[in-house]
TrEMBL record:
Stated name of the protein: Aminopeptidase
Active site: E328 (proton acceptor)
Residues covered by the Peptidase M1 membrane alanine aminopeptidase domain: 255-472
GO cellular component, as recorded: cytoplasm; membrane
UniProt GO BP: peptide catabolic process; proteolysis
Keywords of the record: Aminopeptidase, Hydrolase, Metal-binding, Metalloprotease, Protease, Zinc
Pfam families: ERAP1_C, Peptidase_M1, Peptidase_M1_N
Originating organism: Coleophoma cylindrospora
ERAP1-like C-terminal domain mapped to chain residues: 546-859
């Protein structure tokens, strides 16, 4: 029986559909890390068949039978043969009798699995306990283990045989046999606990609602929790929210716990649907491939995305925890209650949860100005990937499991959310949310497509949504709006933006609907809501003194102003919102990169920001200048000149902000101090370097641990390693091993990567692949890639050790893909691009093939920029006294 291949999707045969799973796991072995399992799947069989195909990956099926009921008679048909298709992650059970078509067939499968260490499926995480753990907790050396699951996208099949596709929804009953001194968690509350044999207990959970396999979850470990309740009632009582951690860490869950109940109440209100489950658990997992996973009722998190210590954590992690908690809780409705029909519409889940996650964060922390943060981080990341010819549309064809892992990227999350933000701004947030409510109610406990969302938004707004938004979703890329001025009017023209600047006619066929949101139309107080729906147009009655297109940067496009206008806007910064400033700086940098504007225009424009005091504006400024510095880092004269320019720009702000916190200081000021100090140190500000070294010395020798404020660890550690040598590096290696701070390992690992010598590089690379958990190897690679002295060594190491690297981290294709992407994307030499292409030419690159195409485009784009603008930049730096 052939499997169905709809639109080139490799899916299971449609004859068998699951209704309910009863999963029982027992015999958990804590030395070999194996377990035994039985799964009974109630299915509907739509036509008679002699075989049943399920998803199964790295499991050993020891036997299977089918139970059927015809009238009063029950019969059992045992399997006669089990065949595996490893590449397609399938097992086919063959029977010598025909299984009749029926709505009441049960497949019973006995199997054995492995609790792996690849952060996928049912896996183990190692950690160093802070207090004495329960006696049965497995350990080796100083490490102990906890166990949890990660099933998205297609890894439920690594834990138990199942029909592992998002639209094959079913209910689940889970039973786990575990040591009686440990705790078991799953999506639902515990139904009953029975005493088992020899110090074991058998924990059974309530039946889940109907849901996709990828949202099922369970965890076993030495857990403890803190609890709070929602203000609203659900089924007559407040909802319990808990943060679970391994023993000794629960107090660090307090910050997340302050957010979760508020967010659940907020979403229940704005979606018009009560939170659908009887509990909301958040679990900190010690090794985690992503940031978090929205399992229904049991959300799992990387520790730095859910734990926060008021005394020792860097304040920037507050923002991360608040946002990630909101993002995952948004999925409890959007994704879990209503699920995309197939992985090609992953963006529906992720784009929406990203947008509404920021919406909730903004509601709780209005002083953080998160939408400006979104413009500087979210939109700019989406722009940079979508500016490549090898980008992909938001809604992208996905064939199978290896395809889907690669689209958990800036397009699905950030271009997706930018598009939603643009549409929500156009329709009005209340109208937009009304449409979302209609969509969720219409498809609750089922699956839906992008078209279903558009149809609900159309009902709520009375507008033709597909006409506005389809090109944004189904076409690759985004537009740049080029402006030409005449007295009292502007002519505007849209064309696709490519960072390589080599647009061909065939690249430029899309006409996007572009909401212009114009400030400065004479006779129109405030903002004029106009739209461009053709390639070009003219807007009249425009104020010659001041106008701004794409007010607050809500439209997902770049704007190319005439150079004199950009320079003028640089003198009118008092009239620009924070998001406007960020958008203008981001656009100027990107257009300089593609050659549609000039780098000298960017440098002249940002000179106007010396007196800027906003963290988010500085963040964008330093990021846009950082790109220029990165591309020209091997051109010594330009690199030195750019350093002097940056120092000249930031010195007044560095002096003003100082090293010490002032009483009552706001959150963003604390972040700005850390950023300015780091930037000053990197660009050669001698006073800052001396002070950082002094504080580092006091801290590392233990003379004064308070010499470095938690928010300044990152800056001081990185300056110390960059300016120092072996002793600073080794001191931080010890700090990495011994830090008790939840973010300490990430901060220290990053700082160690600022090393400047080949000897330390060799040591760091070995350390990265022996001591550092694979969830964090990309952090090391990212820092090495930014260093002009370390970048080539990293690539050489990858070439010489690729098979070992793949064996170590390739068990999780997401981790390998991310490592290659961030480790190789900072080159600006065509010969390196060719070398990378040649190296991977004859290999099986499934799982990271998209990334290799993106890398090729990225490096060639950087090389083109370097070749084209080196002379111009050097001239500008010389004329302005910086070179």
């Amino acid at each position: 029986m052939a499997s169905s291949t709809m639109l080139d999707r490799d899916t299971l045969p449609k004859t068998v559909k699951p209704v309910n799973y009863i999963i029982s796991l027992y015999g958990l072995e804590f030395t070999s890390f194996t377990y035994q399992g039985t799964v009974s799947i109630l299915v509907k069989v739509s036509e008679p068949t002699k075989e049943i195909t399920l998803n199964s990956n790295q499991l050993k099926i020891s036997g299977a039978e089918v139970l059927t009921e015809q009238g009063k008679t029950q019969s059992s048909i045992k399997t006669t043969n089990i065949t595996y298709e490893e590449k397609r992650q399938r097992a086919t059970l063959a029977f010598d009798q025909v299984i009749p078509a029926s709505d009441n067939v049960t497949i019973v499968v006995k199997f054995q699995g492995t609790i792996n260490n690849s952060m996928a499926g049912f896996y183990r995480s190692k950690y160093k306990p802070t207090v004495t753990p329960a006696a049965s907790v497995p350990k080796d050396d100083e490490f102990h283990y906890m166990f949890s699951t990660q099933f998205e996208a297609c890894d439920a099949r690594r834990a138990f045989p199942c029909f592992d596709e998002p639209n094959l929804k079913a209910t689940f009953d889970v039973t786990l046999e575990i040591p009686d001194d440990q705790v078991a968690l799953s999506n639902m509350p515990v139904k009953e606990t029975k005493k088992g044999k020899d110090g074991l207990q058998i924990v059974t959970f309530d039946r889940t609602p109907i849901m996709s396999t990828y949202l099922l979850a369970w965890a076993v470990g030495d857990f403890e929790y803190i609890e709070d309740f929602t203000k609203r009632t659900y089924n007559g009582k407040p909802l319990p929210c808990r943060v679970y951690t391994t023993r000794g860490l629960k107090e660090q869950g307090q910050y997340a716990l302050e957010h979760a109940p508020q967010i659940i109440d907020y979403f229940s209100d704005i979606f018009g649907i009560d939170y659908p489950l009887p509990k909301a658990d958040l679990l900190a997992v010690h090794e985690f491939s992503h940031g978090a996973m929205e399992n229904w009722g049991l959300v799992t998190y990387r520790t730095t995305a859910v734990l926060y210590d008021e005394k020792t954590s860097d304040a920037k992690f507050r923002n991360r925890v608040a946002y990630v908690v909101a993002h995952e809780l948004a999925h409890q409705w959007f994704g879990n209650l209503v699920t995309m029909d197939w992985w090609s519409e992953l963006w529906l889940n992720e784009g929406f949860a990203t947008w509404v996650g920021w919406l909730a964060t903004d509601k709780i922390h209005p002083d953080w100005d998160v939408w400006s943060q979104f413009v500087s981080e979210g939109m700019q990341s989406a722009f940079s990937l979508d500016a490549l010819r090898s980008s992909h549309p938001i809604e992208v064809p996905v064939r199978d499991a290896l395809d889907v892992d690669q689209i958990f990227d800036a397009i699905s999350y950030l271009k997706g959310s930018s598009t939603i933000r643009m549409l929500a701004t156009h329709l009005g947030t209340d109208t937009f949310m009304k449409g979302v409510g209609l969509y969720l109610k219409a498809h609750a406990y089922g699956n839906a497509t992008t078209s279903d969302l558009w149809s609900a938004l159309g009902k709520a707004s009375g507008q033709d949504i597909p006409a506005l938004i389809d090109p944004w979703i189904r076409k690759i890329g985004f537009p740049v709006l080029t402006i030409a001025e005449e007295p009292g009017q502007i002519s505007i023209k849209q064309s696709r933006y490519l960072s390589t600047g080599d647009l061909k006619t065939e690249d430029d066929e899309t006409i996007w609907w572009m909401p212009l949101v114009l400030e400065g139309q004479t006779g129109t107080p405030g903002i004029a809501s106009l739209a461009l729906t053709s390639k070009e147009d003219t807007i009249r009655s425009v104020d010659d003194d001041f106008y701004k297109v794409n007010k607050d940067t809500t439209g997902f496009y770049r704007v190319n102003y005439p150079p004199p206008r950009l320079t003028k806007l640089g003198t009118q910064t008092d009239r620009l919102s924070v998001s406007d400033k960020i958008g203008l700086i981001g656009d100027a940098g990107a257009l300089a990169f593609s050659g549609e504007a000039s780098t000298s225009g960017l440098l002249s424009f940002v000179k106007g920001f010396k007196s800027e005091s906003n963290f988010l504006v500085w963040s964008q400024l330093l990021s846009s200048l950082g790109l220029v510095k990165s591309v020209f880092s091997s051109e010594e004269q330009i690199a030195e000149g750019l350093k002097r320019f940056v120092l000249d720009l930031i010195s007044p702000a560095v002096k003003k902000i100082g090293w010490e916190e002032s009483p009552g200081e706001d959150y963003l000021t604390g972040l700005l101090r850390a950023q300015l100090i780091m930037s000053a140190g990197f660009n050669g500000h001698q006073e800052v370097i001396n002070e950082a070294k002094r504080r580092f010395e006091l801290y590392i020798t233990g003379q004064d641990k308070s010499a470095i404020h938690p928010n300044l660890r990152s800056a001081v550690f990185q300056i110390a390693v960059r300016q120092g040598g072996e002793s600073e590096y080794q001191a931080l290696k010890e700090e990495w091993k011994n830090t008790a701070s939840v973010d300490g390992k990430e901060i220290t690992l990053r700082a160690m990567g600022r090393l400047q010598t080949p000897e330390l590089l060799a040591d760091y690379l070995q350390f990265m692949f022996t001591d550092v958990p694979s969830q964090d190897v990309h952090t090391g690679a990212m820092v090495l890639a930014t260093g002009v002295k370390t970048r080539p060594g990293l690539w050489k190491y990858i070439k010489e050790n690729f098979d070992e690297i793949k064996a170590r981290i390739g068990g999780n294709s997401t981790v390998l893909d991310r490592f290659l992407r961030v480790g190789l994307n900072k080159f600006a030499e065509r010969e390196v691009e060719r070398d990378i292409a040649d190296f991977f030419a004859d290999r099986d690159n499934r799982g990271y093939d998209r990334t290799l195409n993106n890398l090729s485009d990225t490096i060639n784009g950087r090389a083109g920029y370097r070749e084209r603008d080196a002379k111009v930049i050097l001239e500008w730096l010389q004329v302005n006294g910086f070179a």
